[in-house]
Amino acid sequence: AAASVLRRRGRPVSRRRRGLTAPSPQLQEAFSRGALKPGLNVVLEERPKRRNDVDGLKQCLTEFKQQLPWVERLDVTSGQVMDPVLQSAANKDAVDPENDFQREMSFYRQAQAAVLEALPRLRKLQVPTRRPDDYFAEMAKSDQQMQKIRQKLKSKQEAMERSEKAKQLRAMRKYGKKVQTEILQRRQKEKKNMLNAVKKYQKGLSDKLDFLDEEQTSSQGHKKGSASQQIKKGPNAKRRYKNQKFGFGGKKKGSKWNTKESFNDVSSFRSKVAHNKGPGKGGRGGKKALNKRPGKRARQKMKSRGR
Predict the structure, then answer these.
(1) Which of 5, 47, 194, 235 would bridge with 239, disulfide CB 3.0–4.6 Å?
(2) In which element (H, E) is residue 92 found?
(3) Cβ-based neighbours of 95, under 8 Å, separated by 6 or more
């Protein structure tokens, strides 16, 4: 038996550290029976060869086979089919099983030959092989399921339309911002050029006033362009009412002051109105006689008369 503790380079090394473990009792029993083979590789026995037991298969077929007419079975057995391209019998050597195209084509030709063989037999037995024109088949999915699918498709279409509209709005906003920035930059540039021209004129470096004409022409051109783009309309009803009530703006302080022309203008002077001699005027204070209230004594006499 190997020692439980080994020495390597003057140091004790345990069995576990070297990867050695104590054998289990199951392994010891298998080794004593001779079930374990020597070495790391275990030799496996050869697999049993497959057998094609034709007699056994036929016996099983006769056990569960039912004697039914061909209309109930509709089975057609066809052998090898002639290849229309090669004009020869398609045998095992002609069809390569590893070639997917040749294998599927052989299946297709065999199924087609079986159909061509079964159709005359069905017609002879007066079995219809075509679907009638008024044939109605129930759908595999219910109406509720189809309604859910329609709603889902409709919601997807609406979401796509909303996203397209949002994209268009974003593009329009970007374009509007771009145009606005260009207009602001152009105005700032014009203002800067005008200020520079004014400074030059003030310093005496230039005696030309062309920048004023350019400003007027540019403003007029801008106004004409805006007028051509937008149809000029009059003020709305609210603006007209305010204009009628408060005026049209301008200077209001001192608007009632007398001027030389208004002082000399006496066309609106009326002597009767000025001296309280007009109709309905009293002699004292200019109070209206019609609106004068009777005195207390007069009111008492009027009451006594009414009694």
Answers:
(1) 235
(2) none
(3) 102, 103, 106
pLDDT above 80 (res 252): no
Report residue 269 as tokens: 């002077």
Whole-angstrom distance, CA of residue 60 vs CA of residue 49: 21
Least confident of 10-24, 126-140, 161-175: 10-24
CA distance 210 to 201: 11
Q: Where are the beta strands (DSSP E) in the chain?
A: 5-8, 11-14, 82-83, 88-89
- Residue 283: both structure tokens together: 């002699």
Least Cα distance to 74 among 35, 127, 16 occurs for 127
Residue that the structure tokens 């005496």 belong to: 204
21 pLDDT above the threshold of 70 = no
CB 125 within 8 A of CB 133: no
Beta bridge partners of 82: 89
Query: pLDDT tens digits, residue range 104-137?
Result: 988 899 999 999 999 999 999 999 888 888 887 7
The two tokens of residue 212 are 């004023």
Other CB atoms within 10 A of residue 140 CB: 6
Q: To the nearest 5 percent, what fractions of the chain are helix, strand and coil?
A: 50, 5, 45
What's at 238, amino acid-wise?
K
pLDDT at site 291: 63
Question: Using an 8 Å Cβ cutoff, are 139 and 146 in contact?
Answer: yes
Buried b (16+ CB within 10 A) or exposed e, 217-247: eeeeeeeeeeeeeeeeeeeeeeeeeeeeeee
Question: Does the model's pTM come out above 0.90?
Answer: no
| Between 128 and 5, the higher pLDDT residue | 128
CA 292, 295, 298, 299: dihedral to nearest 10 degrees?
90
CA distances from 259 to 173, 193, 255, 274 (A): 57, 45, 10, 21
